[in-house]
Structures are given as structure tokens and as C-alpha cells.
Design a protein that fits this description.
With about 700 residues, this protein is mostly helical. It contains 31 helices and five strands. Helix 10 runs antiparallel to helix 11. About 60% of the residues lie in helices and about 0% in strands. The N terminus and C terminus are likely disordered. It has a five-stranded mixed β-sheet with strand order 1-2-3-5-4. It starts with 8 loop residues before the first helix and ends in a 6-residue tail after the last helix.
């Protein structure tokens, strides 16, 4: 409806004359003009507070009887009748005064640098672990401050919060050495007695409690308890001790396996601060759990509840259950899980008592069962997890519970693959059942959107199941899992290839030799996996069992050429090169085979004998094997030296090999016995020991 204070007929007549200019439509426009004149509402008085009255019912009836073309024309006419809106009068602006000062900074307000911008960037870097960017920010700011100080301008040192954020960034980036370097900037040459007006305080701020806490936390994440102890000593010198610092030191000792020191620092915390808090006690119980020390974990838990009157949370119970399971005290673990169930019902979702912490408690127990190979107990705990843990209504809690449940299934399957001495068939049945349940759980319609996030966990589950199948003598089942693994668009890693090769090695002699050779080739050509010492050892062993020594030698030579670290981490040899396969040749005619598996040693001996017979060396061939110190602990262990002697005597005629009295960790092959083998028929006859050519 049009709103106007003046009568409408003149405006209607003018609008209709402008719109309906053709003379043929004059009659129709006249009818439309009359309708618009009847439908023009009367403006309400100004005192009523309303802008206009509602359209009368006659207008609605008129609109219902009009054609679409008439409605369009009526709308255009109403717009033409609407007067323009009036703006309120604006105050005239005063001309700028000639005495008005010009601003010093011509940068717009939105582009002016703020003091908090640097701290905001440091907070972002600290949270993401970008320690290089954080250190660069600190160094740049210190350079600018130094330049201003040399120029005699007014300057202020960086706040201590900036250094604390840089230390936190280094800790989250797993670089505790750089974190200690930042702490060294603040403490070097500073005396605790110096006040805020000292020369050093003018350059850099004094460290506070947060500084030492962040540095100790960085050391705790790296497991470097010695550096954490140094940070504690510096904090004691500056009188900045608190419970958070002690907790970080206790955690560092627990990660390093120093349980006694962790408990000693817990006692020091109680002496210095009067009592410990729940986080410190949880770190101490977790240190005992890592060492499998249930007695000390139980003692600390009782000290926490009955002496210091500290109420444990689910994380404390998680560490205690993990300690009981790691020590094999599964009855105690069941009792603690019952207590957890009752406490969760009473807490009703309080902080640290939610579904995610409840699921994490079961996850810790199952990982401890995996470490001991307790597959039956792991299966029982997994059943309790499915029956007792509720995912909750929060989306974050649901995601955390699903993630913990997936990790629990992987740990239970891994428990079936550990310490397989007997009941291999029962373990395989359990692992297969758990793997099927895990796949059905992850591929359910309600969880299918999270399937892509569990690729790593599913790969671990498949690998563990393949290990169990191989140990049970079911190579066919293991290779079926390998094919199903690839059919499900999951890329195998090195551990997966090793499990498949181990299953081939434990199968019937020569049955899967060709498949083992293909697996080695696929692992070499795969961009997502790289062969290691176990891959080469399993492939060579499978071919050795099938009597295909030439193929085994080719794989060994290819591994040497690729630089695969064939030696184990505990291998002997020259310092710095003992873990590299390219360093197996120590000196001329001296070969270091210590740390290699027996199949690889056989390939190494054959290659060495070929090289020695083709060379111009005059010295005897020496193989460095080690003295076999493991036999003192394990009477059933066969030293590598004895295996090398036995293999050399298998040649026909046997090679002249012996162990010198002054070097018990070596085996010497006389040069004369090598020269006698130059006239053999072919290369295969040489490595096997054949008849001479007449």
C-alpha cells in the first residue's frame, strides 16, 4: 500500500499516463486508476506512532480478481506513488582548524602493529610445535632491542612470556636441547639475588616458575631425566619450585625407566611442598607401570589416598591397572576395573571421569597385556570394554572412545602374536575372530566415515594376525590376509612384508620360494616401504630352505648395493659403522659378520670366498663372529662362531678353518684351501662343494 500525505489521484493520473501511453489501453487504465484510488490508504496521524494503516479488505478482494498483468501494473503504479524517503538533516561540518596537529604516524589504524601480535604468533607456534619459527621470532626481537639500545632510544626487554612460549614450542617440537638453550639465555650470568634494576634484567627478563616448568616438560617428553634434574637444580637456586616442576621430573624418570629416582623425587616433593597433588601421584604410578612394578604402584596409591588425602582420578586408576597387568597381577587388575566401574557411575561425567578416560583405562590394560602376550586376559578385558564403556553424547567423547576401542582391538590382536610358545592354533582362532570383529565395527554405517582415520591401526592388526598365522603354520591364511589387506586399499609397510615373508619361511620347504622372491621385489619397488635387515633375512632364509642358493646370493648382493642395514642394533664391529651393511668388509680379507642372522652369514661367506679367490690377496680370510656371550645366559644358544665353522666344513672338500687362540671371536680360513677351489666346474658347484674338473 502506498503511503502519502497528499491526495493520490494526480499522482495516479500521472503514473498511468506515463505507463499506459498507447491510446488503445485508455479504458483499461481508467479502470485500474479507479481501483488504485479506492485502495490508497489514509495515513495515520503522526501522534499515533504508526507509519500507515493496513490495507482495507476491499483491496485484498480486488487483488484476487485481477489478472497477473494487472497485478504487475498495480505494483509498478504503487512504486511510482511512493514518495522518496527523507534523510534527517546533517550537521554542517566545521572546516579544519589551521592549529590542528598532524598525526605522527600515517599508517592506517588496521595496519598499525600491536604489541600482542608477536605473543599471539608465539602462542600459535608453541601449540603447533614450530620451534624454528618461535626461535626466529625471539632472535629478531632481541636484535631490534639491541639496535635500539645502541642507538640510545627508549626500549623495553621482551616479556618473560615470550621466552616461555618459545621453550614450549621447542618441547612440543620434540627438541628439548633448544628449549634448554632458551633457558640458558635467561639464567646465564644471572644471580638469584639480583633485582629488577640489574644490568642483566635490562637486557632480558628474569625466569619465573613457568619458565622452569616448560623446560622440564620438554625434557620429560624426550625422556632425558638427567637434563630434567639439572632444570630442577636451577629452579631450586632461583626458588621457583612447584608441583608441576616435580611432576615433569618424575615423568622424565619414568620414561627413562628410573623408577627409584621417580619415587625419590615424589618424596622430595612431599618434603618441599608438604603434599603431592593428583598429577604428581599419577606420574609416579605411571613410572611404576612402565617398569611393571606393581608393589610400589600399590604402595604409592595407598600413600596418595590414606596419607595425603588426595582423591585419584581415572588417569591414576589407568596407570594402576596398567601396572597390575604389566606385572601379571590380573586379579588385582580386575578388582581395580570394578572400582573404576563403580566410580564412573558415581561421578556421572565429571572432569577426568568421562567416557574418554574410562575407555583409555581399558586401553592401557590391553597394551600391558600385549607386552606380556596374555591373549586370554586381553580378550576378557576387551569384552568388558564393549559392555561397560558408554560413548556419551558429546561428539569429542564419541570420537575419543572409538579411537580407544580401535587401539584396544589392535592391542588384543597383538597380544596373540607375542610370546607364541604353544597354543598357536588357539591364538590364531582368537586373532582371526578379533580381526573380523574389528573390521565389522569399523565398517558399520555409523562409523564408516571414520574408516580412513584408522589405516595405521588396521595395518597393525593385519600384520599381527599374519604373524600369528605364520607361527601356527598357516601360510595360506597369512597370504590371504595379505591379499585382503591390499584389496581393501591399504598400503603394506615393511612390517607387513616381513610378516608375509616369515610365513613363507615357516611353510613347507620350497612351497613359497617363488612367492618370497616376488615379495622381496615388490618391497624393493614399493615407495611406501623399504626393506630392512629382517626383510632380507626372511627372504634369504626362505630361498636357503628351498636350496636356491644362487637366488639368495642375488638378494644379499642387492641388499648390499642398496645400503640396507643388515646388521642388528646389538651387533659388534667398528664403532660408528657396525650398523651399516656396507661396512661388513672391515679390512682386506677381514669380514665382519657379527650381528647377521645365520642365513645372511651363509650368503656373506659365499660372497667373501668368491671375492677372495678372484683377488690377489695373500693373507688368510678372517670372519669376525664374536665370542658368543649370550650362551652364558641362555645354555641353548648356539654361538655364531660355531655356525660359521659348521658351514665351512660342509664344503667338499672342507675348508681349512679354525679359531685362533689369541682371537676367540674370529674364524680364519687358510688361503691355500681357497686356491684349491679355483678349478671347480661352475659357480654353483663352488658354493655347494663339487667335483674338480679333470
Amino acid at each position: 500500500a502506498a503511503q502519502s500525505q497528499t491526495p493520490a489521484p494526480d499522482a495516479v493520473r500521472h503514473a498511468c499516463a506515463c505507463i499506459c501511453s498507447p491510446p488503445v489501453r485508455t479504458t483499461r487504465c481508467e479502470r485500474l486508476k479507479a481501483r488504485v484510488a479506492q485502495a490508497t490508504p489514509v495515513r495515520a496521524p503522526a501522534s499515533s506512532g504508526r507509519s500507515a494503516a493496513r490495507s482495507p479488505p476491499a483491496l485484498k478482494a480486488t487483488r484476487r480478481t485481477m489478472s497477473p498483468a494487472s497485478l504487475l501494473l498495480l505494483s509498478i503504479t504503487a512504486i511510482a506513488l511512493t514518495p522518496p524517503q527523507r534523510r534527517p538533516p546533517q550537521k554542517p561540518q566545521k572546516p579544519p582548524s589551521s592549529k590542528q596537529r598532524r598525526p605522527n604516524n600515517q599508517v592506517p589504524r588496521a595496519q598499525k602493529p600491536k604489541v600482542t601480535d608477536g605473543l599471539a604468533q608465539l602462542r600459535s607456534d608453541a601449540q603447533a610445535g614450530r620451534w624454528r619459527e618461535a626461535l626466529a621470532t625471539i632472535t629478531t626481537a632481541e636484535g631490534a632491542i639491541e639496535t635500539a639500545r645502541d642507538a640510545g632510544a627508549t626500549f623495553f626487554p621482551l616479556p618473560v612470556e615470550a621466552y616461555n612460549l618459545a621453550i614450549t614450542a621447542c618441547g612440543n617440537g620434540r627438541n628439548h636441547e633448544e628449549a634448554l638453550g632458551v633457558l640458558r639465555r635467561l639464567t646465564m650470568g644471572v644471580s638469584p639475588e639480583e633485582g629488577p634494576g640489574s644490568m642483566q634484567a635490562a637486557k632480558r627478563p628474569r625466569p619465573d616458575a613457568v619458565t622452569f616448568n616448560a623446560a622440564a616438560a620438554a625434557c620429560a617428553k624426550a625422556g632425558d631425566y638427567q637434563k630434567a634434574e639439572q632444570v630442577l637444580k636451577q629452579a631450586r637456586r632461583f626458588n621457583k619450585l612447584d608441583a608441576i616442576l616435580y611432576t615433569s621430573v618424575i615423568s622424565a624418570c619414568g620414561r627413562a625407566g628410573e623408577t627409584k629416582k621417580a619415587l625419590a623425587y615424589l618424596e622430595a616433593l612431599r618434603e618441599d611442598l608438604g603434599r603431592g597433588d593428583v598429577v604428581a601421584y599419577t606420574a609416579a604410578v605411571d613410572a611404576c607401570a612402565r617398569a611393571g612394578d606393581w608393589l610400589n604402584a600399590e604402595r604409592v596409591l595407598g600413600q596418595m589416598i590414606f596419607e595425603d588425602k588426595v582423591v585419584p582420578n581415572l588417569r591414576t586408576y589407568r596407570a594402576a591397572c596398567k601396572a597390575a597387568a604389566a606385572a601379571g597381577e590380573f586379579e588385582k587388575c580386575e578388582e581395580l576395573l570394578d572400582d573404576v566401574k563403580d566410580a564412573v557411575q558415581i561421578a556421572q561425567g565429571a572432569r577426568f571421569w568421562g567416557p574418554r578416560d574410562h575407555a583409555a583405562c581399558f586401553e592401557g590394560v590391553l597394551k600391558a597385556c600385549r607386552g606380556r602376550g596374555a591373549w586370554k586376559e586381553a580378550r576378557n578385558v576387551l569384552e568388558r570394554l564393549e559392555n561397560e564403556v558408554e560413548p556419551g553424547n558429546n561428539e569429542d567423547d564419541v570420537e575419543a572412545v572409538e579411537r580407544a576401542a580401535t587401539a584396544s582391538y589392535v592391542a588384543a590382536i597383538g597380544a596373540c602374536a607375542r610370546n607364541i610358545d604353544d597354543d598357536a592354533d588357539s591364538r590364531w582362532s582368537c586373532a582371526r575372530d578379533l580381526l573380523d570383529r574389528l573390521e565389522a565395527r569399523l565398517k558399520a554405517p555409523s562409523r564408516k566415515s571414520r574408516l580412513w582415520r584408522t589405516k595405521r591401526e588396521r595395518r597393525q592388526a593385519y600384520t599381527s594376525a599374519m604373524v600369528v598365522a605364520g607361527r601356527a603354520g598357516r601360510a595360506d591364511e597369512a597370504l590371504k590376509l595379505f591379499d585382503a589387506f591390499e584389496a581393501d586399499h591399504l598400503k603394506p609397510d615393511t612390517a607387513c612384508y616381513n610378516a608375509a615373508l616369515a610365513a613363507c619361511r615357516r611353510s613347507d620347504v620350497g612351497k613359497y620360494a617363488d612367492f618370497a622372491k616376488k615379495l622381496w621385489r615388490r618391497c624393493v619397488d614399493d615407495d611406501d616401504a623399504s626393506p630392512d635387515s629382517l626383510t632380507a633375512a626372511e627372504a634369504v632364509a626362505c630361498l636357503e630352505r628351498a636350496g636356491r642358493c644362487s637366488d639368495a646370493d642375488l638378494i644379499f648382493a642387492e641388499a648390499l648395493e642398496m645400503g640396507v642395514p643388515l646388521k642388528q642394533a646389538r651387533s659388534a664391529g667398528p664403532q660408528g659403522v657396525s650398523k651399516r651393511s656396507v661396512a661388513w668388509l672391515d679390512e682386506n680379507s677381514e669380514y665382519d659378520v657379527s650381528g647377521l642372522s645365520v642365513p645372511l652369514v651363509k650368503c656373506a661367506i659365499r660372497k667373501a670366498l668368491k671375492d677372495e679367490t678372484a683377488s690377489d690377496h695373500t693373507a688368510d680370510c678372517v670372519f669376525i663372529t664374536g665370542v658368543g656371550a649370550k650362551k652364558a645366559k641362555d645354555p641353548t644358544h648356539v654361538p655364531l662362531r660355531d655356525s660359521v665353522l659348521e658351514f665351512l666344513r660342509e664344503f667338499d672338500p672342507p675348508l681349512n678353518a679354525f679359531v685362533p687362540k689369541d682371537a676367540q671371536g674370529t674364524v680364519v680360513v687358510k688361503r691355500s684351501s681357497l686356491l684349491d677351489r679355483l678349478d671347480y666346474d661352475d659357480e654353483e658347484a663352488f658354493v655347494r662343494g663339487g667335483k674338480r674338473r679333470k
